[in-house]
Amino acid sequence: WRPRAAQMEIQAKQKAILAKMLNPDAGGSVTWKVLVFDERCMKIMGALFNVQELNKLGVTVMMRLRNKRERIDDTPAVYFVQPSKDSIERIAKDCKLRLYDSIFINFCSTVTRPLLTQLAQETVSGGNYKSISKVMDQFCDFTCLDRRLISLDMPNSFVKLRRPRSEQALMAYVDRIVDSLFSVIITIGQVPIIRCCPGEAAALAAQRLHQKLKAHLMRRNNLLSTGMSLYKRPLLILLDRSMDLSVPLHHPWTYRALVHDIFKIEQNKVAVPVEEKKKHYNLTSEDEFWNELQGAAFPKVAEGVQRHLNDYNKEYNDIKKNQMDLTDLKNKVNSMPELIKKKRLIDAHTNIATALLKHLKERHWDRYFELEEELINNMPPSEQDLLDQVKPEAKGNPKDKLRLYLIYSICQNVSSTTAKEIEGILEGYSKSEAELDISSLKFLKQYKMEKKFSSGLMEKSAKDSSSNASQRSLFNIISDTVGKRGKKLLQGVRNLVPTDKSLPTTKLVEALMDNKDSKATNRFLYYDPQILKANGPIKGSMRIKERFLDGLVFVLGGGNYMEHQNLQDYAKRASSNQAEVSIAYGSTEILSGSEFLEQLSNLGRPPTGADVDVGLD
């Protein structure tokens, strides 16, 4: 297809905005400067730029706002901070101390009038305000982890949304989410249609975001385009995590999700044990291997290691050839830095894959993945299969077994006899050295009770009538052989590749993007902020009828890499030569299965102040 204007390339757009922020008065040339940021904005910048890129943009020194800083003469400073009372006080103090020649203040989200008044009052005495050259709202209060993947870095979000300490606390928390979503929309540059299901936090967020966008569009100098054809407008789908608890607990089988579940990716960085030492790796868009295979099943990663190694060896052997003219020699010498970089990346991913393999083998990970994938795709294994996998003699740690049982209980009705036996086994783990926290079982019972009185956000998908009734497995065994190194990486783990299945979130998104009436979508509210006379959801003829090509799916309460990848796979399938479909994915936080399990356990325990208060301010 011919790519349209890439509306959903959110990472590239955010990076361009912040690159421009770093050269406010340069007129195209590079001006050397100091960059001062707080903890929040350091995360935002760190996900987009490495040190070399910042140097090219003229940043010579990077410092934290809260750290003690010395005066630097004849140098401007660019501040990138959250709009808060503390930030204003520290900036005003810097102005008073005349730390920098000129100061460019950039807030990651909208600064309020009271804070601007505070800044003016604290810098007016002694002419301290004169060093302030510019004050800007950058609308970048979100972290871009990938081209179309965002996180608000709001930890423990499922707990905070399910069990807020008060209605006021819930409203404040949702408003934080709305402010960040507003930043995302400003970055995209187009007013979206908003869809949500009524009844939970996503509906509250949709209504408040609708009002915020309407108020912004009424301003004479608003930052959003409203002149595009209707069919080019993006669709924003707000979902509650409670619509599906199975996928966040799922043992993944794709590369990026595996790395996060086992080693935890933080700001696109991961620490992996290599020969009894921790090695740190950056997993960024500059890494060709990562770009190509982060969404691939683990066996494909092993094949990829071998393929990239073969390519490297071929290039290396070409350089070693004795017979070449001067031009060839010059070209080969110039290609050496790139070749060295390739070898470094191959070694890095070999180390990561080898470390993953150790865990996969020890925990019989492929078996958990297989059983859970069948459950999520409505082709459940027997209760005996479940029982065999949670018994003490079965491989896997107690948390693996608890995650499997929770998924089974979410997706299927477990007989009382089997449930009693399995919960007895899990309780035994809680009393053993493993000290497994089984509080999540209490929450699950409460959750299932709620579901009995609610139709939920999604209709269960009907089984594919065209499927062969005897075809119980989701997997095809790869018959192709891999190179020696690839084979070594697969020893002890079955070479499983899942068939092309949409997760529950993707099925719902597909129906909403197609924009056709269905049982799954009719309950979803429809907001259009461009219709200024509409104070709430609209119906009938006022709605856009065309299929949507651009979408942002945002989950309140925690997202995961599996849903993100599944949506990217759907977008590829849905695209054609005539129309490219582009889907971005975001959440209040990106969770691993064990992290989500901890939040369910938290909700299963009696509430404490620590459970609900942390991070709300």
Shape: globular
Question: DSSP strand (E) fraction?
Answer: 5-15%
Gyration radius from CA atoms, angstroms: 26 Å
Structural class: alpha/beta
Q: Largest beta sheet: what is the strand line-up?
A: 6-7-16-15-9-8-14
Q: Overall mean pLDDT score?
A: 87
Low-confidence stretches: 455-487, 612-617
Query: How many E-type strands?
Result: 16
Helical content band:
40-55%
Largest sheet features: 7 strands, mixed
Task: Please work out how many helical segments DSSP would assign.
Answer: 23
Question: How far apart are the first and last residues' alpha carbons, in Å?
Answer: 46 Å
Can you lay out the helices and strands and say which pair or pack?
Elements: H1 10-21, E1 33-37, H2 39-46, H3 51-56, E2 59-64, E3 77-81, H4 85-97, E4 103-107, H5 113-124, E5 132-137, E6 143-146, E7 149-151, H6 157-162, H7 167-188, E8 193-196, H8 201-217, E9 235-240, H9 246-249, H10 255-263, E10 269-274, E11 277-282, H11 288-293, H12 298-320, H13 326-362, H14 365-376, H15 383-390, H16 398-411, H17 416-431, H18 439-452, E12 475-477, H19 484-490, E13 496-498, H20 504-514, E14 525-527, E15 550-556, H21 561-574, E16 582-587, H22 593-604, H23 609-613
Parallel strand pairs: 1-2, 1-3, 3-4, 4-5, 7-16, 8-9, 9-15, 15-16
Antiparallel strand pairs: 6-7, 8-14, 10-11, 12-13
Helix pairs in contact: 4-5, 7-8, 12-13, 12-19, 14-16, 15-17, 18-22, 20-21
